[in-house]
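Lab notes, practical 5.
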Amino acid sequence: MTNFRFAAEARLVRALSAEMQAMRSMVEALAVVLVSDPEILDLYGTELQTFDLLAQKALESACLLERIATGMAAEEAVAGVRLERMQERLRDALKAA
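Output from the prediction step:
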C-alpha cells in the first residue's frame, strides 16, 4: 500500500524510475563503445570514468524512486542510497524541506 494520495502518482514515480534505468543502460552502452576505441581511451581514459558515475547515480536514483513508490518513508528510502555523497546531499535536502 502506498502513501500517495492517488495510485497514479505511484505509477508516475515508477515510470520515472524506469526512464532513469533506461538512461543508465544507454550511458553504459555508450561508455562501452567509447572505451573500446584505443585512441579515445588513451586521450580521455580518466574522463570516461564519469560515465560509470552517471550510471551509478541513475541506478541509485531509480532505486530510490522505487522505494518511495512503495510508500517507504523518505528518510528510510534515502538511507538505502549506496553512494555516500549522494546520500548526504539527499539527507541535507530532507532537512531543508
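Observations recorded by the TA: The chain has a mean pLDDT of 92. The chain has four helices and no strands.
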